[in-house]
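seq:
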Amino acid sequence: MSETPVTITVDGQPVQVPAGSTVLDACTAAGVDTPTICYAPNLTPVNVCRVCVVELEGSRTLVPSCSRRAEAGMAVQTDSERVRHSRKMVLEFLGSAVELDQAPQLDPWMARYGADPGRYGPAPATMDEPLRVQDDLYIRDYDRCVLCYKCVEACGDDAQHTFAIAVAGRGFGARIRTEFDTALPESACVYCGNCVAVCPTNALQFKTEFDLRQAANWRPEEHSVTRTVCSYCGVGCNLELHVQDERIVKVTSPSDHEVTNGHLCIKGRFGWAYVHGGADSDQT
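struct:
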């Protein structure tokens, strides 16, 4: 027997959602476009970025909509002055500490809330982390990392169960690291690339994308994306082939697919270079 649906009020509008839904689910059902960074539909919410906060009637503090369960009778405001100010400050703080130039999905939110990271200085005060290019599959640029934990979740209980990475350090010294900061090829990483797939700021990115960006030849607006089925085994994982200049430049998977939920193994994610033949086929 299914549980009774829950009705809450979002910006004055009654919304009914299934039991167990979050406030974010209710906001989405109400047609409210809510900014998120650390949230992904195929990962467990960790509510660390706090850009999705809403004002809950009777609550002293703003609450993260991505993880707060909807309860009958709740009344939330998604666009109050308090909410707008909080979201603006979160976006400004992030933009003042990390490079967000490869996170264009944040630009509309910056504009909507009038966020101006430049108020804190002409350039982001990053930690000057060295660029880590340790293999031919993906790179790590931690000066772009906003510590959203999505890569940690994808590597852990939510998908791969490898636990090759975690947060090391505290405060401003917190960073995503392999065990004992081991070089990636010598770590527990199995190169599924699920961490790359969920990264919202390109701190983790395909080596193919990185190389094209370095050559000023990365043109995502021209990409064709074709869905197909991975041919390596019989599981039936769906692949999205991103093609530029008639060459595959990266592979993703739809997060709403019932088999993959956006996750892949090393073969599905990186084992496509053989399509082009020649030296590129040595990629995996």
